[in-house]
Amino acid sequence: MAIKLDLKDKRILTILDEDARLSNSQIAKKVGLSKPAVEYRLKRFEKNNVIFAYYSVVDFTKLGYSQYKIYFKFQDITLEDEKEIVDYWKNDNNSVWVAQIRGRWDLAVSILARSNFEFGKILSRFMNQFSKFILEKDVLLTEYSPIYAREYLTETKATEFVYGIPEKFYELDETDRKILKELSNNARINIVDLAKKTNLTRDVINYRLKKLKKDKIIVQYRCYLNLHNLGINHYKIIFRTKNFNEQVEKLVKNYVEKHKKATQFLKLIGSWDLEIEFETESEDELYKILTQIRKRFANIIRDFDILRITETYKYDYFPFDVNLYKDGSNNK
Q1: In 3D, which of 313, 274, 63, 76 has the Cα closest to residue 171?
Q2: What average pLDDT does the segment 315-320 reach?
Q3: Any alpha helices (H) in the chain, and if so which ranges?
Q4: Rounded Cα–Cα distance for residues 18 and 73 (Å)
């Protein structure tokens, strides 16, 4: 049963999605509640599994990585076999996102790799172990992808983070890696606990965090929601296009950017060209949005497919093994 949110709840979730490192006192001031009231609501969120993770958005493009997306269709597989595959990708040192999906595919995995060769080794290692369960797979390279704030929860400033656009590469040292590893899936950890986990001083951590933010390696601190526990459905619509050029691309991107239910736009290289993520309260709402898109962009849509994300198993912008990262490799 979905938990019901009032306006204060929605405002707290929106604030956490804007900056998950804000203290409870800072959140209370922004929302107009007491600190104990905010703490009570956060505990309620935890009890009802509303928040999957507080995560740090790391611009992996600046670290020399590209994102590859893999969609898998299973065959002759038991629930135990499926769990083993999910656990494999959850524990992989290069997987950013792992999710159960419904539609044409059964599982989605996003991988970070520094080259096609490295990605090929990662995929081959998996296929060598599990190919008998894979009926079909599709591999897509993300050219670039803007990610947007959840404007539908409550009024918030429109924000956009774009990854995939090449820039000057940034070399991390061991101290940076330690901090990013701890913050990647625990963005609300306090400085004292972070110091204990990394064996670094608070002064060093504060200095490095400011530098990582200034250099835009850490772009934002956000919260990833268990949307189904809020009665919200998470969809991807993937498109094959025709008559597609830079001008049309800007029009589509502008449409997505202004749509309150859209949370991500992806320009892809592979068998599909575009992917748009929407978060809606019902399937009917999603199909109304799709109808609008098909009418507005009829001249460029060749084909489309709808995927529903039913469960997220992993979401981590810095999944790398800190020790293996030292030599630029994360292969097991």
Answers
A1: 63
A2: 95
A3: 7-18, 24-31, 35-47, 79-90, 116-130, 174-183, 191-198, 202-214, 246-258, 283-296, 322-325
A4: 35
Span 216-267, pLDDT tens digits: 999 999 999 999 999 999 999 999 999 999 999 999 999 999 999 999 999 9
Confidence of residue 327 (pLDDT cuts 50, 70, 90): very low
**Beta strand pairing status for 107-113 and 51-58?**
unpaired
- Residue range(s) occupied by CATH 1.10.10.10 in the chain: 1-48
> In the chain, which residues fall in CATH 3.30.70.3460?
61-150+226-315
Distance of CA 175 to the CA centre of its chain: 24
**Nearest-angstrom CA–CA distance, 52 and 49:** 7
Tokens at residue 260, please? 């309150």
- Read off the pLDDT of residues 7-63 as tens digits, 9 standing for 90 and up: 999 999 999 999 999 999 999 999 999 999 999 999 999 899 999 999 999 999 999
Q: 53: number of CA atoms within 13 Å, CB side?
A: 16
Rounded to 5°, the CA angle 289-291-260 comes to 15
Torsion of CA 316, 53, 202, 198, to 10 degrees: -50
CATH tag, 1-48: 1.10.10.10
What are the tokens at 172? 């991390």
Class of domain 61-150+226-315: alpha beta
Angle at 177 between CA 176 and CA 181, to 5 degrees: 120
**Whole-number pLDDT of residue 232:** 94
Say yes or no to pLDDT of 330 above 90: no
